[in-house]
Amino acid sequence: MTVEVVLFDLDGTLADSLPLIEHTYRLVFEEMGIPWGEDAVMGWIGRTIRDIAEYFAGRRAQEFIERYQMHYHREHDKYTALFPETLPMLAGLKQRGLRLGIVTSKGRTGAMRTVNFTGLAPYMDTVVTAHDVEKHKPLPDPVLEALRRLAAPPERAVYVGDSQFDIQAGRTAGTRTLGVTWGMAGRAGWREFRPDGVLERWDDLDKYL
């Protein structure tokens, strides 16, 4: 069936922001005296900051969130960029008449800062953030909200992400799912989570559309 809509995760998929996220979490963990287990918190990327804070900080979750947001916004521009060829890829999809969207677990302020700073905004027909739904990835609600806004059936949509949470959300929503090798899961991770396809570079997207 013809694809009408391509949805993307943001961090680790379009935006090379994982260094910023790890740097910010390390600062928060150090300040709050939380032991840093190698890759422990990074395995949660794709979930909301509230989920992460409650898991790692418990009753100090709100303090965790406030510290994270302070450091994140202070360091954002220094550590954030797009992955190579992202804007040309998006421009090509728009020229073909596809509608595009972002589905992210970030809050709206942080998500829109990245979207505007990196130049993604002109290409996006919708941006769904953690503030737009009550239930979050890996549940399908954010993907379904994007499809609702775009009046598109899931069978005509593809969701592209870099983590297991993206694949679970897209699959449950009824879209096709694609994993990228340059984000959290890397190449090896997709053997376990089995998206419908894996992208080694943006040029690979064409064969799934």
What report would you give on this structure?
This protein is α/β, with parallel strands linked by helices. It has helices at residues 18-32, 49-57, 61-79, 86-95, 108-118, 141-150, 164-173, 190-193, and strands at 5-8, 99-103, 126-128, 157-161, 176-180, 197-199. The chain is 42% helix and 12% strand. The protein has a six-stranded parallel β-sheet with strand order 3-2-1-4-5-6, sandwiched between helices. α1 runs antiparallel to α3 (61-79). The radius of gyration is 16 Å and the shape is globular. InterPro entries: HAD-like_hydrolase_sf, HAD-like_sf, HAD-SF_hydro_IA, HAD_2, HAD_sf, PGP-like_dom2.
Compute the average pLDDT: 93
Number of strand segments: 6
Order of H and E elements: EHHHHEHEHEHEHE
CATH homologous superfamily descriptor of the largest domain: HAD superfamily/HAD-like
Main attributes?
6-stranded parallel β-sheet; alpha/beta; Rossmann fold; 6 strands; 209 residues; HAD-SF_hydro_IA; 42% helix; single chain
In short:
The chain is α/β, with parallel strands linked by helices. It folds into two domains: 5-16 and 81-208, HAD superfamily/HAD-like (Rossmann fold), CATH 3.40.50.1000; 18-79.
Topology:
Elements: E1 5-8, H1 18-32, H2 49-57, H3 61-79, H4 86-95, E2 99-103, H5 108-118, E3 126-128, H6 141-150, E4 157-161, H7 164-173, E5 176-180, H8 190-193, E6 197-199
Parallel strand pairs: 1-2, 1-4, 2-3, 4-5, 5-6
Helix pairs in contact: 1-3, 2-3
Pfam family, one: HAD_2
InterPro entries: HAD-like_hydrolase_sf, HAD-like_sf, HAD-SF_hydro_IA, HAD_2, HAD_sf, PGP-like_dom2
GO molecular function: phosphoglycolate phosphatase activity
